[in-house]
Amino acid sequence: MTELEKLKQLIDEENYPYFDDKYLEERLGETDDIYQLAQELCLIKAGIEEIKLGDIIIPSPKNHFLLLAKKYRKNQNRVAVRADEY
Q1: pLDDT tens across 15-38, in order?
Q2: What's the rounded Cα separation, in Å, for the pair 32 and 26?
Q3: Do 16 and 68 contact (CB within 8 A), yes or no?
Q4: Which of 5, 29, 62, 81 is most deeply packed, by most CB within 10 A?
Q5: Domain map of the chain by residue range?
């Protein structure tokens, strides 16, 4: 599995397509931590609004992506840490 395929799986791109492959490849080139990138992208996808198509309403996937972002967070113990790592 390539890094791009793994990232797409982490951010559930199959069920909620949002980013194109070129953008994801560029972002992969900017970081060494795929989980941190997945967290950032999930937070972006959490902002997707609900969609109305006539009588059909597709709800916002906000909660789904917030849960995924939480899963990829480094600090899982909810303890505040300093940004300068002291």
Answers
A1: 999 999 999 999 999 999 999 999
A2: 12
A3: no
A4: 62
A5: 1-31
